[in-house]
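Onboarding guide, step 5: your first structure request.
Type a short instruction followed by the sequence, for example:

Predict the 3D structure of this protein.
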Amino acid sequence: MSFDGSVVVITGAASGIGAGLARRFAQEGSRLVLADRDAGRIREIADELSAVGVTADVSTDEGVRSIVDRAVAEFGGVDVFCGNAGIGGARTPADPDDAWQRTFDVNVMAHVRAARILLPQWLSRGSGRFVFTVSGAGLLSMPGGAGYSVTKHAAQAFTEWLAYTYAHRGIAVHAVCPEGVRTPMLDSDPYAELVLEPTAITVDEVVDAVMGGIRAERFLILPNQGTDRKYAARAIHTDEWLAAMSGIEQRVQQTLADRQG
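The system replies with structure tokens like these:
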């Protein structure tokens, strides 16, 4: 499978997995449209890769549409849409509604809006590819991150729905579900540091898994070792899995309390 000349859109491309995907698709010869809220950083990445940089907020329909419109204006359409932008967002039920809404808008509705905009053209021509960075939290869960866990489960469900609804009409769909990855998001979250850091992998390892999964036409792309076993245990031995997660939650809370003195 060659991506030479393909038009690839990547959201959340200013750093982390998004920037890693951008560099790899650039090596493949793709024509890139890179989007992020960080105007300065996305300009740097776009200049580095001779790509089109777009400053946009994917939490709104206008933001997602502006990215696709720019790709159409520059290159005539989109071949691959990598929905990579994501936020930690609301942590507990005590967080206000607007925090929960923004978490849902970025982690779920950005994918829905991209599909709404792109599917008519892709179905007409019989081809198109979604690559959504769902997160291992979409298969498992994330201690200390209620909003993240809930919205990533929703993102996984939507991605599955897209895959089985449109596979016979030429639409390829991939759910990328990494657990710990050494990115700024990991460094900024004390829960993620304690839970995910010990087994975290590099961005390059994630990108290798993504490109391998795309070429193998796998729906579920699991860059970290053992995610499949945890996913199976969650489904088959749910009570035991919940007990183990409760133990993790208690240990993390105790560690954070000890740090605070």
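Each response can be followed by summary notes, for example: The longest strand covers residues 31-36.
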